[in-house]
Amino acid sequence: MLPxxxxxxxIGRHPQSGRERRAEQDGRAVEMGLCLQERQLMHLSVAHAGxxxxxxxxxxxxxxxxxxxxxxxxxxxxxxxxLIDYVEAQQASMVLMxxxxxxxxxxxxxxxxxxxxxxxPLLPRVAEIQSIEEGVAxxxxxxxxxxxxxxxVALPFVATLDNAAKAPRQTAFGPGQRADIEVINTTSIAxxxxxxxxxxxxxxxPKRMKVVKAKTAADRFKAATAKPVxxxxxxxxxxxxxxxxxxxxxxxxxxxxxx
Amino acid sequence: xxxxEDILRRDPRAEWIARNRLxxxxxxxxxxxxxxxxxxxxxxxxxxxxxxxxxxxxxxxxRLAGNGQTATGAKRRSSAAQEVTLPLHQVVEPNAxxxxxxxxxxxxxxxxxKDILGLAHELAKQRKALNADENLAVVAVCFGESKExxxxxxxxxxxxxxxxxxxxxxxxxxxxxxxxxIESIYQPKHWLFPDSVHGGTDLALRLAVKLDERPAxxxxxxxxxxxxxxAASGSQDIQRETPRILMILEECGxxxxxxxxxxxxxxxxVESSVEVRLEDKGLIAVDPNAVPLAxxxxxLSAGNGIHNWQQFHDCAALLGATEGASRVAVDDxxxxxxxxxxxxxxxxxxxxxxAVGISGAIQHMQGIGQCDKIVAIxxxxxxxxxxxxxxxxxxxxxxxxxVLCRLxxxxxxxxxxxxxxxxxxxxxx
Lengths: 259, 429
Description:
The complex is a heterodimer of chains A (259) and B (429).
Chain A: E1 4-9, E2 11-13, E3 20-22, H1 24-38, E4 43-50, H2 56-61, E5 67-72, H3 80-90, E6 94-98, H4 110-118, E7 122-133, E8 136-142, E9 148-154, E10 157-161, H5 173-178, E11 180-185, H6 192-195, E12 198-201, H7 217-225, E13 234-236, H8 241-254
Parallel strand pairs in A: 1-4, 1-6, 4-5, 5-11, 6-10, 7-10
Antiparallel strand pairs in A: 2-3, 7-8, 8-9
Helix pairs in contact in A: 3-4
Chain B: H1 2-6, H2 12-19, H3 26-32, E1 36-37, E2 43-44, E3 52-53, E4 59-60, H4 71-83, E5 88-89, E6 96-100, H5 111-130, E7 136-143, H6 151-154, E8 158-162, H7 172-186, E9 190-194, H8 200-211, E10 216-222, E11 226-231, E12 236-241, E13 245-248, E14 260-261, E15 264-265, E16 279-284, E17 298-302, H9 309-319, E18 322-325, H10 327-331, E19 352-356, H11 362-367, E20 373-378, H12 384-388, E21 391-394, H13 397-412, H14 420-424
GO molecular function, one term (chain A): electron transfer activity
Family (chain A): Belongs to the ETF beta-subunit/FixA family.
Pfam families (chain A): ETF
């Protein structure tokens, strides 16, 4: 019996048109689950908490899922406790999802709350799961500037996926329509704190101006026209080639770009 | 007597001499009286007498009025500017705290960190205006080794520096435990985190879950009562009361630049009893040419001065650098278009940029504007790239690269065959 991986998906928002779509990172979570399933490491199930009628769920199902579970919820309801019940009922040992939702509050709290309530560790911004052996997973985390960090963690755990993870596969319309969408009725808990918040269309953020704190007109003129120069760089001219190359190499070592 | 001195009197003779350029006293008279009063007492300027005759007989006008900078004057001026000490902002016996947990990416405060420290002071000022008894200090919590030397100018009143090796690298559990301890001791009014991929968001959310708070994520307008945060992938704003834990976007505060701060250490005894379930196995070597050029950390860039291209690719592979190129190298077909740096190419953000045989056309210099450190290898000592560089080497690129390759091999113990997989990518032109 393979351990279970649960991918939690949400409804995404297209950045230009604003239409509903597969969420970028949630699509990657399903993709990673499918890859784990194809490698015979885990068994994938996919769940969504929200509206069961959304056509986007068919897009997820079109990635090659035969079944998709929906925890029926209204908007502005707290999905946390139904999700915890569901994860426990499924006996999943890994939960994958995106970092932030593309709709709603996008606070990114859900994976952390889930991990805390379940008592599981959380891995942020996963790029790849390299192996799962004897219940210990070797996971690559995505760092800025394209770097990767290897972390080993015992199952079960919650992970959020970075955009560096493998892009989701294409969805097929027919299989998506034929997939079975199972609706699970849950108790609803209204989010009363967020009900007091005001949601408005985003205002453009002010751009930062370059403030020149010059005392004299000459300084202002210089600030407006001067080319940015490093100023006081070291120039090696008459040394031997060996010395020059050594100087560059030492500089690179000092800046820690050569490991 | 003094009354008489106030009366402005004309001197017709002097005026006559001033008008008569052939008068033997004309030079002396006009030189002396730089300021000429008109009959009504107004200062009159004679446009014909502005300036002086330069050494080659051409009239020069100095409009800088003493602000001009000669070569020596510039140096003196800049050294004087450095010596200016900003006023010290002191917080004596603070009774409340605002805690900032900067990213310290690369061991230094990032621009976002500095903005957030500025924002923390802004919040402190607003709180002080409401409640004068509150003596707020801005505390920075810094994990692991730091290269930052200017905490004082960034606005850190108190510093909690957890230097122990267990906080280095990826250690969210250890860091969280330290933050929880700080929470229990100091009871800060606000926790400010950068909303960034460097780990600020992760730590903030972990803390928020532990403290059972509802943090403001992607906050961009913060005052002590209300906070505006982005939501729904940037398409909506949420306006809410300001929570204790805030994750703040870039450029949302003004960095401190007019005061110095004390940077006094705050003691913190951390009991290390936390169970570590995430085991850090360290950074993984990645193919440098698979990293997008725009976010590569270390770029070796080639220009017109490169003749031995195979050697350049080998050198990049050995040093583990991402390859870049100037427009000339791309147009000549030696490098693919995707490697072009500068206008009509990629604007790079590398920490270290090594320009080999690139003299620095303005279009190229625009593209490397955000790089921290520039190293130039060039035969022309007067070129713009050498002027911009932090370290410039005037030599033939082929010889320098040959020695660099050898040094890199000695350092890593790697031979070229072992790194061959990385260099293959670069040959796709």
